[in-house]
């Protein structure tokens, strides 16, 4: 059965959901060591979190891109994640979802979170037909993310490199066996209606 086009797939527990980010070692290493973002992490900037491991690998080149060499798995509260979704606006104007472009721009300016739906990726990082959620946090949401929602931060760079080595060696079964067990995230009924058609 085909995956729904817009669906959040994530690694989650009863109280947390795991999202991924990649940083240079000056941010990533102290964040993983201390379980919180260091002073150098800018709360006044937009920060993008991704529940899809493979989309993160596509974005950071398996932890090889400059400034993205440290791949982090960040466990945050489901309460915080759902608050961000509820207060999010789509990152681009979608005719039929918002009344007009001006209304959308006003919503975007007011929203502490924004959503992009990008093609999910396979192990070769090729695009798939269904979409993967990217959640941008700014202002109040970025502060809450760093100071309230974050439960744990783990450096998973070695895991990313190991999976990539298996893919390059043609052992997709071994690579697949190491992937985080992402499954459909139970968003409340209608909880994503304001974020896609």
Structural description of this entry:
This protein is α+β, with helices and mostly antiparallel strands and 197 residues long. The protein is built from 7 helices and 9 strands; from the N terminus they run ββαβαβαβαββαβααβ. It has helices at 25-34, 53-60, 78-86, 101-110, 140-149, 157-168, 172-178, and strands at residues 9-10, 16-23, 47-49, 70-77, 88-90, 113-121, 127-137, 150-155, 183-184. The strands form 3 sheets. It has a 4-stranded mixed beta sheet with strand order 3-7-6-5. Strands 2-4-8 form a 3-stranded antiparallel beta sheet, with helices on both faces. Strands 1-9 form a two-stranded antiparallel sheet. Helix 3 (78-86) runs antiparallel to helix 5 (140-149) and helix 6 runs antiparallel to helix 7. The mean pLDDT is 94.
SSE blueprint and pairings:
Layout: E1 9-10, E2 16-23, H1 25-34, E3 47-49, H2 53-60, E4 70-77, H3 78-86, E5 88-90, H4 101-110, E6 113-121, E7 127-137, H5 140-149, E8 150-155, H6 157-168, H7 172-178, E9 183-184
